[in-house]
From TrEMBL:
Organism: Sarcophilus harrisii
Transmembrane regions: 530-555, 567-588, 600-624, 644-662, 689-712, 724-744, 756-779
Region: Disordered, residue numbers: 788-818
Main location: membrane
Keyword Cell membrane part of the UniProt annotation: yes
UniProt name for this protein: G-protein coupled receptors family 3 profile domain-containing protein
Recorded family membership: Belongs to the G-protein coupled receptor 3 family.
Subcellular location: Cell membrane
InterPro entries referenced in this protein's UniProt entry, alphabetically: ANF_lig-bd_rcpt, GPCR_3, GPCR_3_9-Cys_dom, GPCR_3_9-Cys_sf, GPCR_3_C, GPCR_3_Ca_sens_rcpt-rel, GPCR_3_vmron_rcpt_2, Peripla_BP_I
MF terms in GO: G protein-coupled receptor activity
GO CC list: plasma membrane
Topology relative to the membrane: Multi-pass membrane protein
Length: 818
C-alpha cells in the first residue's frame, strides 16, 4: 500500500499499487459481462511497515473509521467482503491472524511463501504471486555465465532470508561458486534514525566485487537509509525480484547502485494501463485526499498553501515526467499481482451471484452485516476454484497448487550523468523453458560502469592459464588458490584445471604444457652422422685386422711370426675382426634378433680373443721357464694345450650366454622416459645379473693374462710378447673401468654409443699393442726378422741372463713355436 506519515517519507513508487486497484476496479465496472449491474468499490489502508500499524489498520477496516472497537462494526453500509494484502509474508500473517477470526478472504499479493500455503494455519489466505522456487538457480546461472565465483550474500534476517541463503549456498556449491561473506539485515529496525549500522561499511570494505541482495521492500527498509558513499564504488549488485533497487530515500544516492542487475518478474503488459497512468491528476479525482498528498510530495509542492488549487502547483505535471526512483510508468510485478487479485475477487463474486441470484435482491440494511458475513463464507468456495485469463492473455489461478514458476526479466539499472536513471532489460530467466532457452543474457547491452565497459572480475583468485593447475590454499575456500606449473609429463588445455592429464607414453607436453605432442622415435641410426662414423670405424678396424692377418699369413715362415705361435695369432686376429664387426649389431633399429646377438656375439668373440692372449702369455712364460730337457714343464708346451685353453675358456663363456638366453634374454625396448620428447629404441639386457657375469668373466680372464704377463715382463724381449700384453691389459682395464660407470649413468642412445666405443677401443688396443709393432718389423725392418740377428742380440745379453735363463738359443725359440 502507501507509506506517508511523520516521521516516514513517501515511498512514491508504491503508489502505483493503489493506482492498479483503481484501474482494475474501473475496468471491471465498465465491463458489462463481468458483474453486470454491480459496481465494485474499495478502501485503501496503510501499514507503515509496522506490525502495530498493520494490526491497527486491520481493526479500522473491521470496525469502521471511528474509534476502534473489536468485534463491532460502526458503518452499517460497509459491505466489504475481501482483503487484498499484504506486500510481505510478515504483514500477511499479522492481518490474517485477525481476519481469519471472521473468515474474511485475504488475498496476498506479496512474494510467494510456502509457509502461507499451509491451510491449517491460514485457511482464509490465498496467494496470487507465482512461485519463486527457482530464483536462486537464475542468480547462480548469472554468476556462472560471467564466471564470478567470489560472492557476497546479503539477506533479511528472517525465515525467508534464511531459506534463500540455504538454497543459494547449495546451488553455488554445485556450480563451484564460493561465498565470501554473509550479512543478515535486521528487519525489526525500520526507522531511518535506527538504521545507521556498521554492516554497510563491512560490505563495502570486503574484497568481493559481486554482492547479491535478497529481501522484500519491507524487510530491507534499513538499506534505504544506510550509509553508502556518494562516490561510485566498483561493485556489482544483484538484486532479487522482491526488492526494488531503485527505491532510495534521496535521489542523489541512486548512483550507488549504478550498473546493478536485478531479477524482476517477467509480466505481460496490461492494455490501457500506461494510458490510464498518463491521465492521472488530482483534478480527475478531486475527492482522493491521498492522491493530493502524493502529488504535492512527488512534485515537491509541499510549500504551497493548502487552499491553493493543485494546478497552480504543477499545471503541466504528469506522472510520466517523474524519475524512475520516484515513480515508474511500467506496471511492476506487485501491481500486476494486485490487478489479478482484484479480478479474482470479481470473478468469484460473479460466479457466486450467477449461482445464487436471489442474494442480489437483499437490500434491507438490517441484514447487511448478515449478508456480508454470509458472502465471505460463500466466497471461499468460489475463490479456491477461480481461474481466468486477464486482459494480457495470461492464465491466472487462485489455487496455489496450480501456480507456475515465476519468470524473470534481468534488468540493468543505469544512472545517467544528467541525473536520470532507467532499467534496461538485458536478459531473462524462464525456469520451465527447454534447456538452452531458459537463460538468455545480452552482454553487450549491459552498462557496467562509467569508467570501464569490461565485465567486472568477481573472483577470489585469478584464473590459472593452460599449463598450470590450481593449488588449494590452506584454510581458504576452494575458489581461492594459487597457480602452480604442471608436473613433468602432464598437461592441461583448460583454464582453472584442478587435475592434470598425463600424456600417453608416445606423446610429450609442449613448453606451455597445454598440449601433448607426438614423440620422435630415435635410435642410433645408420643414416645419421654419428652412426655413419661408427660404422666407418668398425669396418676400417676390421679391414685393418684382416690386413694384419694377411701379413702374418704371408710372412708365416719368418722367425717373428713363428716365435709368437701362429695359430694363436690367427685365432686372435680372426676374433678381433669379429669384435669390430659385432659393433655393427648395435647400430640401426633394434630388433629381437639384433638384441639377442649384440651382447652374446661380442661376449663370445671377445672371450676368444682374451683366451688367445691368455694362452699366448702362458706359453711365453713356459717357453722361458723351460731350463733343461726332461723337465715336467715341457708337457705343457704341447701345441694342443693352447687350443684347450682357448676352447675351455671360450666354452665357459658360451655356457654363460646360453643360460642368459634361456632364462631372461635381451629384448627390444622403447624408452619413453629418458628424453621427454623422444622415444628411444634400445635393447634391454634382460637379466642384469647375467650381463655383468659375462663382463666379469671377461675381466677375470683379462686379469689372469695381465698377472702372468706382468710377472714375465723382465724376460728376454727377443720375440717376447709379455711386455706388449702387460701394456695391452692396462689399456683394456682403462677402457672397461671407464665404461662401467659411464654405461650406468647414461641412457638410451648415449649408452649404446659408449658400449660401441668401448668395444672398438679395447679391440683396437689389442690390435695395436700386440700386432702393429710386429707388422712394422716384418714390413719395414726385415733385417731384424732373421734368426742370425736375433741370436746375436740374445748372446749380447747372455752375460746378465745366462745364470737365470740358460739355453735361450734357437732351441728355446723352437720350443716356443711348439
Amino acid at each position: 500500500m502507501f507509506y506517508y506519515t511523520y516521521p516516514h517519507r513517501w515511498l512514491h513508487k508504491n503508489y502505483q499499487q493503489g493506482l492498479a486497484v483503481v484501474f482494475a476496479v474501473e475496468e471491471i465496472n465498465r465491463d458489462t459481462n463481468l458483474l453486470p449491474n454491480i459496481s465494485l468499490g474499495f478502501y485503501l489502508y496503510n501499514t507503515y511497515h509496522s506490525d502495530e500499524r498493520t494490526l491497527d489498520s486491520s481493526l479500522w477496516w473491521l470496525s469502521g473509521q471511528g474509534q476502534v472497537i473489536p468485534n463491532y462494526i460502526c458503518r452499517k453500509q460497509d459491505k466489504s467482503i475481501a482483503v487484498i494484502g499484504g506486500v510481505t509474508s510478515a504483514l500477511s500473517v499479522q492481518m490474517g491472524t485477525l481476519l481469519d477470526l471472521y473468515k474474511f478472504p485475504q488475498i496476498s499479493y506479496g512474494p510467494f511463501d510456502s509457509i502461507l500455503n499451509d491451510k491449517v494455519q491460514f485457511p482464509s489466505l490465498y496467494q496470487m504471486a507465482p512461485k519463486d522456487s527457482s530464483l536462486h538457480q537464475g542468480v547462480v546461472r548469472l554468476m556462472v555465465y560471467f564466471e564470478w565465483n567470489w560472492i557476497g550474500l546479503i539477506a533479511s534476517d528472517d525465515m525467508k532470508g534464511e531459506e534463500f541463503l540455504w538454497e543459494m549456498r547449495e546451488e553455488m556449491i554445485k556450480n563451484s561458486v564460493c561465498v565470501s561473506f554473509t550479512e543478515k539485515i535486521p528487519v525489526s529496525e525500520r526507522r531511518h534514525m535506527e538504521s545507521q549500522k556498521t554492516f554497510m561499511p563491512r560490505i563495502l570494505a570486503s574484497s568481493t566485487k559481486v554482492i547479491v541482495i535478497h529481501g522484500d521492500t519491507d524487510s530491507l527498509m534499513i538499506l534505504r537509509y544506510s550509509q553508502i558513499p556518494l562516490l561510485p564504488i566498483q561493485k556489482v549488485w544483484i538484486a532479487t525480484s522482491h526488492w526494488d533497487i531503485t527505491m532510495r530515500s534521496l535521489y542523489a544516492e541512486g548512483n550507488s547502485f549504478h550498473a546493478a542487475l536485478t531479477f524482476s518478474y517477467l509480466t505481460s503488459e496490461i492494455p490501457g494501463f500506461k494510458t490510464f497512468m498518463k491521465t492521472i491528476t488530482p483534478s480527475k479525482y478531486p475527492n482522493d485526499i491521498l492522491l493530493r498528498e502524493f502529488w504535492l510530495s512527488a512534485f515537491k509542492c509541499l510549500d504551497q498553501p493548502e487552499n491553493q488549487e493543485q494546478e497552480t502547483c504543477s499545471p503541466n505535471a504528469s506522472l510520466e515526467s517523474l524519475n524512475l526512483c520516484s515513480f515508474e510508468m511500467t506496471m511492476s510485478g506487485l501491481s500486476y499481482t494486485i490487478y489479478n487479485a482484484v479480478y479474482a475477487v470479481a470473478w468469484a463474486l460473479h460466479q457466486l451471484f450467477m449461482k445464487k441470484p436471489e442474494k442480489r435482491s437483499m437490500g434491507d440494511e438490517e441484514h447487511d452485516s448478515v449478508i456480508r458475513i454470509s458472502l465471505c463464507f460463500q466466497l471461499h468456495s468460489y475463490l479456491k476454484n477461480t481461474q481466468f485469463k486477464n486482459s494480457a492473455g495470461d492464465e491466472v489461478f487462485v489455487d496455489e497448487n496450480k501456480h507456475s514458476e515465476a519468470q524473470y526479466a534481468i534488468m540493468n539499472y543505469v544512472f545517467f550523468p544528467n541525473g536520470t536513471d532507467a532499467l534496461v532489460k538485458v536478459g531473462q530467466f524462464v525456469p520451465e523453458a527447454p534447456l538452452g532457452q531458459d537463460f538468455m543474457i545480452h552482454e553487450d547491452a549491459i552498462e557496467w560502469s562509467w569508467w570501464d565497459s569490461k565485465v567486472p572480475c568477481g573472483v577470489c583468485s585469478d584464473s590459472c592459464d593452460p599449463g598450470f593447475r590450481k593449488s588449494p590454499l590452506e584454510g581458504e575456500p576452494a575458489c581461492c588458490f594459487d597457480c602452480s606449473p604442471r608436473p613433468e609429463g602432464e598437461t592441461s588445455s583448460q583454464m582453472n584445471a584442478e587435475q592434470c592429464m598425463k600424456c600417453p607414453d608416445d606423446e610429450y607436453p609442449n613448453k606451455q604444457r597445454d598440449l601433448c605432442l607426438p614423440k620422435l622415435v630415435t635410435f642410433l641410426n645408420v643414416k645419421e652422422p654419428l652412426g655413419m662414423v661408427l660404422i666407418l670405424m668398425a669396418v676400417s678396424f676390421s679391414l685393418l685386422t684382416v690386413l694384419v692377418l694377411w701379413v702374418f699369413v704371408k710372412f708365416q715362415e719368418t722367425p717373428i711370426v713363428k716365435a709368437n705361435n701362429r695359430n694363436l695369432s690367427y685365432t686372435l686376429l680372426i676374433s678381433l675382426t669379429f669384435c669390430f664387426l659385432s659393433a655393427l649389431l648395435f647400430i640401426g633399429r633394434p630388433t629381437t634378433a639384433t638384441c639377442l646377438l649384440q651382447q652374446t656375439v661380442f661376449a663370445v668373440v671377445f672371450t676368444v680373443a682374451i683366451s688367445s692372449i691368455l694362452a699366448k702369455t702362458i706359453l711365453v712364460v713356459l717357453a722361458f721357464r723351460v731350463i733343461r730337457p726332461g723337465s715336467r714343464i715341457r708337457m705343457f708346451m704341447h701345441p694342443r694345450v693352447s687350443k684347450y685353453v682357448v676352447l675351455i675358456c671360450s666354452g665357459i663363456q658360451v655356457i654363460f650366454c646360453g643360460i642368459w638366453l634361456g632364462t631372461y634374454p635381451p629384448f627390444p625396448e622403447a624408452d619413453t622416459h629418458s628424453k621427454p620428447s623422444h622415444i628411444i629404441l634400445t635393447c634391454n639386457e634382460g637379466s642384469t645379473f647375467a650381463f655383468y657375469c659375462v663382463l666379469g668373466y671377461m675381466g677375470f680372464l683379462a686379469l689372469g693374462s695381465f698377472t702372468i704377463a706382468f710377472l714375465a715382463r723382465n724376460l728376454p724381449d727377443v720375440f717376447n710378447e709379455a711386455k706388449f700384453i702387460t701394456f695391452r691389459m692396462l689399456v683394456f682395464y682403462s677402457v672397461w673401468a671407464t665404461f662401467l660407470p659411464t654405461y650406468q649413468s647414461t641412457k638410451g642412445k648415449a649408452m649404446v654409443i659408449v658400449e660401441i666405443f668401448s668395444i672398438l677401443a679395447s679391440s683396437s688396443g689389442l690390435l695395436g699393442c700386440i700386432f702393429i709393432p710386429k707388422c712394422y718389423v716384418i714390413l719395414f725392418k726385415s733385417n731384424r726378422n732373421t734368426q742370425k740377428h736375433n741370436k746375436n742380440k740374445q748372446d749380447s745379453r747372455g752375460k746378465t741372463l745366462s745364470g737365470a735363463y740358460p739355453n735361450t738359443s734357437s732351441s728355446g725359440n723352437n720350443s716356443s713355436e711348439k
